[in-house]
Design brief:
Elements lengths: L2 E4 L8 E7 L2 E6 L15 H13 L8 E2 L8 E7 L2 H12 L4 E8 L7 E10 L6 E4 L7 E13 L2 E8 L6 H7 L32 E9 L6 E5 L39
Parallel strand pairs: 5-11
Antiparallel strand pairs: 1-2, 2-3, 3-5, 4-5, 6-10, 6-11, 7-8, 7-9, 9-10, 11-12
């Protein structure tokens, strides 16, 4: 069960603790909340969790929080933090070695032609914009992006896809799907024509999209046993209208392992 922690503002849903296991915290991040790195007046999940830890443990001075990966601002779902640097280093190594399994749920405006598949692209950040585009592999600065997907079923909002990441690039899922004509519901930046929020927010960067980090599996950085944590979908998704059997992850599908050009990962989603 998730543990309700705090309301941030009227425009951002509350965040929840999914698990606090030794030095590892798993949080269900709401859409609209930055992971980190904003001006002091703008709330971020990093600042919220530091304030929570400071209050809970009565810590004087600065509170350490290890940020080992990120989610895009409009993306919701499970994200990991650590309370000490040793655990942060061990989890960061698992991310670098692609030992962590990340599963996303996304609702698209259009249904893919194939019910499952592997998408391989090269992505490049657009200069002076928080935006990414698909480019030819030989483009200087381009980074390889790989994901696998399957269509789970149809919902009132659109087609529900389960997505497994091989890499974690900036806006990866959003741009890879949109480039094929399957934009994420609500992702106006990448071509969706349908807002998820009603009424739509005034600021596009705060606009929620139907992309959710559903599940993460990793080795605990102290015990080294396997841990899997799942995050409930946001309330604004409504009733998906699908049975537990239809959305079960174990479908017997085996996706090929793709040789990925090694480099550092970036913001996910």
């Amino acid at each position: 069960m998730s543990d309700l922690v705090t309301d941030i503002s009227d425009s951002i849903p509350p965040w929840h603790i999914l698990s606090e296991d030794g030095p590892v915290l798993a949080i269900n991040k709401p859409s609209g909340l930055l992971t980190l790195g904003a001006a002091p007046r703008i709330p971020t999940l990093e600042r919220e969790i530091k304030a929570y830890l400071k209050q809970k443990y009565g810590k004087p001075g600065n509170v350490y929080l290890g940020v080992v990966h990120r989610l895009d601002r409009p993306v919701s779902g499970v994200i990991l933090f650590t309370r000490n640097s040793k655990a942060a280093g061990r989890l960061a190594e698992q991310f670098r070695e692609r030992q962590i399994e990340k599963i996303y749920w996304g609702i698209t405006d259009r249904e893919p032609e194939q019910q499952s598949g592997t998408l391989i692209d090269w992505l490049l950040k657009v200069p002076d914009k928080a935006e990414v585009e698909v480019v030819p592999p030989e483009t200087p600065g381009a980074r390889q992006a790989v994901l696998h997907y399957r269509v789970v079923g149809q919902t009132p909002l659109g087609s529900l896809l389960e997505i497994q990441l091989e890499t974690g690039r900036m806006h990866q899922i959003r741009v890879q799907l949109a480039s094929r004509g399957w934009p994420i519901r609500g992702d106006i930046q990448y071509g969706s024509t349908q807002y998820l929020a009603d009424p739509p927010p005034e600021e596009l960067t705060a606009n929620p999209i139907a992309l959710h980090a559903r599940q993460i599996s990793f080795l605990h950085p102290v015990r080294y046993d396997s841990v899997t944590i799942a995050a409930p979908v946001p309330a604004n998704w409504g009733d998906l209208g699908l049975s537990t059997e239809e959305i079960a992850s174990d479908t017997g599908l085996v996706f090929p392992k793709i040789a990925v050009i090694p480099d550092s990962d970036d913001e996910e989603g």
